[in-house]
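SAMPLE LOG
Freezer: B-3
Tube label: C17
Construct: single chain, 494 aa
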Amino acid sequence: MRDGLVALHIQRILLIISCCLVLTGCSTLKSAKPWHRIILDEEFSSTDLKPGYTWADYIAQEDRLFSQLKTVITENPREDAYRYQFNSPLNSLNHIQNNQALNARNVNTVKNWNRSFILKPEKVRGGIVMLHGLSDSPYSVRSLALHFQQQGFYVIAARLPGHGTLPSGLLNVQWKDWAAVTELAMRELQVQLAGNDNIYFVGYSTGAALAVDYTLSAQLDKTLPQPKKLVLLSPMFGVSKFAVLSKGVDLIGHIPLLSSERWLSKQHEYNPFKYNSFTVNAGWQARSLTMHLHQKIASAKKKNNLQAFPPILGFQSIMDSSVSTPAVEHFFAQELPSHNNELVIFDINRNHNYLPITRTASIELFATLFNTGPAHYNLTRIGNSNASTHQVSEWRRPAGTTEEKETVLPLEFPRGVFSLSHIAVPFPLNDPTYGLEPDENEFYGIRLGNLNFRGERNTLAIAADTNQRLNANPFYSYMEGKIDEWLDVPSTEK
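STRUCTURE (predicted):
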């Protein structure tokens, strides 16, 4: 209640400030870039859902959307467009042409990865719907999707509305639009599997919250496809409580002279698969989705409807500046029923070379959150084997116990890496865009994972500290193997 009153007072103050700004005319759209002000009206919203609207209709609408995007890019040439220059190698509309060599080897791997995609295996064991995160694109689940295809899974990776095009797509989108596409993808997967009920969910960040939201709905509506298990990467179960203030700021931004205030950040757009700019509305939708999810879980618990909830395997970096690690722990410890759930935590690098300059709160966070006694889920920590090495071990604590069992892994923290990050979890070290050791056979205009530029300040459009946040997961191979083992889907081969 107190937080709500504080938010209300701050919103009133912001409204007063906005009136003053309107009178002085201090903000205009004159300096706004096309990708910050142009709205693509072919984008899907839940209001487009009519009886009989299917996944095929969504893909057809997406075709029109990306055709409109191409027109916008063509008609708004700018030297500072970067990703939105017509002939730029950063422009995903050009990526198929730029990777003809890869296309010759495997046509299924060459796509516009900002779009929804489907990967079909030779023999189908089951199916997986994959959902990306906020301001991302389906590229963020690409590596796992290709792996699942090889393992015999029919994969549908859905593009959430507002993503993969212009950052202005996040100005008006609603989380219910994302939920609607999630259901469309699940229904399409059920059709394609034709009676095979081995259906699974993989969600990253916001996509993880949407996967849980859908599964809660499916518990009540048995006409919906029922996922057997969920895999959640950096799940968005909690964001800053002050994100609630973004609604007031967004309302102010609808005042014509204050339209620029609808942005928390306006940046150069050089990242081919993720927006660098971020809207106020995006923060509000993230907050609204998590609040809705908490209410939905509470209602399900009250009615004792969570006992049949499918098992969950989660992966979370202990240090995460995008989502709340305490909220993830609370979800596994307090919200889920007692059955075969597991949470894998990627710990900080506790090598003695880093500890003297590591914040005390960072050192103590794992113990603060997870050493409170036996839990009813399996807890696994990936961390240093000891303080004198960068090699890591799996420290597994079975449900109901407090003792950790160590298994030394053939992995280590790369040189200079002091922790994972929210954005690193779904990407392998050889990811062509975000990897520390990128695959040279693919190129999408830039290698963001191993930037090591030197020169004078204010020369490049990329901020000097961009590469401090880790972009790829040095323990990705462990995660991939863990998921395979945990899904445990029988092979279709006789």
